[in-house]
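S2.1 Query sequence (UPF0250 protein PQR63_01775)
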Amino acid sequence: MPAPTEESLIEYPSDFPIKVVGIMHDEFANTIVDMITEYDPTFHAGKVEMRPSSQGKYLSLTVTVRATSREQLDNLYRALSGHEMVKFVL
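Output structure tokens follow.
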């Protein structure tokens, strides 16, 4: 008997916000935009909201991707979480 598939609470396609936090670095935002574009070719840098931490040590990026499937989002989260510049992804 096949395992039951988990039902997604997200309707696809939809716009999906993701927060990515990393150490302040000149190339952090560009690196993240490049990674996201691999999973969402319609993404562009104008969809990025940047917020530095109060001490200026970290940079928080809120990006809104066009989610087309759970697999796409899972793969994107894994790629972002595994990158050396990223502290965490929400």
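The chain has a mean pLDDT of 92. The chain is about 25% helix and 30% strand.
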